[in-house]
């Protein structure tokens, strides 16, 4: 499982010129799954996400978590996080989880975050989405379950 996490001052997701998800500040999280992902990994990644201390404190140090800043989450499914350009110039997506299972884990991930008390907005799985983002910093972090939990 891979997460690209962006500290955001404001963000929204549009599908067919309609806003389907919007947050004031917090995280925009791009979420991708590979074949070996499961609910246990999803739970660990959700916990890692919400406990990261990547927001500035009163001294300008990255010392505060999402909870400390009363942040929200805009969660966007993105199978392209598992794109490979190893062989050629056109991406291969053979490492990405098949859509039905990926959607189930995506919904489970969002449920894990909601169960922890966070306001979660989301895009539409598999849709052609437009993400509007004002990135704070910019501050972007990549979390990869294979790197973190292997």
What does this structure look like?
- The model has no long low-confidence stretch (mean pLDDT 96).
- The chain has helices at residues 39-51, 99-115, 145-149, and strands spanning 2-15, 18-23, 26-32, 55-56, 62-64, 72-77, 120-122, 129-144.
- 23% of the residues lie in helices and 38% in strands.
- It has 150 residues and is an alpha/beta fold.
- Strand 1 and strand 2 form a beta hairpin.
- The termini are close together.
Task: Work out the radius of gyration.
Answer: 15 Å
Mean pLDDT: 96
Structural class: alpha/beta
Instruction: Report the count of strand segments.
Output: 8
Please report the distance between the alpha carbons of the first and last residues: 12 Å
Characteristic key phrases:
150 residues, alpha/beta, 6-stranded mixed beta sheet, two-stranded antiparallel sheet, 23% helix, globular
Task: Outline the fold blueprint.
Layout: E1 2-15, E2 18-23, E3 26-32, H1 39-51, E4 55-56, E5 62-64, E6 72-77, H2 99-115, E7 120-122, E8 129-144, H3 145-149
Parallel strand pairs: 3-6, 6-7
Antiparallel strand pairs: 1-2, 1-3, 1-8, 4-5
Summarize the structure.
By secondary structure, this protein is α/β, with parallel strands linked by helices. 23% of the residues lie in helices and 38% in strands. The chain is built from three helices and eight strands.
